[in-house]
């Protein structure tokens, strides 16, 4: 029933383009167009991308990609939901061959890209690649060949290699209209007949959340992240405002994770992971997990937090207060629970308080709060409050007890 009510509200808001109040919580206006009809990314993509840990350095090569795929299986990351092993810029030779085809870098990928994709597939995982909607990619001396004007040829080649995911960047775009460039690649990918998750990476420059829900499965909302609390914080603040535009098959992308890269504290990395999850962001691991500490793996494999990100309702969490750097974000979950993140942006510990009704929890006389990091549970008659360390986040699952008998699951 509840799911049906939400579906009706979503449909209604698509029609009228207005905010709708459902079950005590404002469900913001839906995006202007239907989601891309490729059936992919019904929940935010999860996986790995090498960029944040390697950039173009020599450690980015076939051995690394295979090692990550091995580790996905052996370390439990695959079981936790991570699926894509994606490679970023610098995988290609600087020039196309005489037929105009892209050529894998002979040093990094001596056996080609298909061999790597086959290896990844052999582990029951999916493989992703990178290009740019320009004449050159973003990095290397002068960049590597981009897809602008080569969309059909490149997409066909990638499909023949077994590519399952494309990150399509924005460098060297010659001033051609973004919608036109990204739509051309959408159509080229569709023409291959292979399901390929399509990630737009134009850094939010053309407000893709206003036009890309039927172009790509996800779109970057900001410039590049780096391994610093300040940058993670500023990206969070920009991305959290865009909750109205995300949904199954079309997500806001605040960029890849920095968890484990070493320049933030574990408290800050837990905030990063919690905030990305409550914002229904893609969870693409950006550290070289072959060298990960156990603290890093514990963060990345927190399946309770991952479940918030991957919830099938597909609603991005909404910030309901942020006074004095004390943020409260709430996200409705399938089955009627709520996730609530209490994030302390400031440099000193602080108590952050809200209530079951303010976060839109089902009406009840008491609620069970499960702390998704400590796993502690407690009961409340309404107040949801925690002492949160500097730069820290407490994230709860709020469950109404007992479930109201009038509401049955649809
Ligand atoms: C851009 C993107 C990054 C990365 C690099 C590669 O900066 O935003 O995520 O792909 O290009 O050169």
TrEMBL record:
Tell me a GO biological process for this protein: carbohydrate metabolic process
Q: Which reaction does it catalyse?
A: Hydrolysis of terminal, non-reducing alpha-D-galactose residues in alpha-D-galactosides, including galactose oligosaccharides, galactomannans and galactolipids
In the UniProt record, does the keyword Hydrolase occur? Answer: yes
Which residues does the UniProt record annotate as the domain Alpha galactosidase C-terminal?
Answer: 324-398
Q: InterPro entries per the record?
A: Aldolase_TIM, GH, Glyco_hydro_27, Glyco_hydro_27/36_CS, Glyco_hydro_b, Melibiase_C
EC main group: hydrolase
> Superkingdom, according to UniProt?
Bacteria
Q: Where is the signal peptide?
A: 1-29
* GO terms of molecular function: alpha-galactosidase activity
UniProtKB keywords: Disulfide bond, Glycosidase, Hydrolase, Signal
What Enzyme Commission number(s) apply to this enzyme? 3.2.1.22
* Similarity-based family: Belongs to the glycosyl hydrolase 27 family.
- Which protein, by its recorded name, is this? Alpha-galactosidase
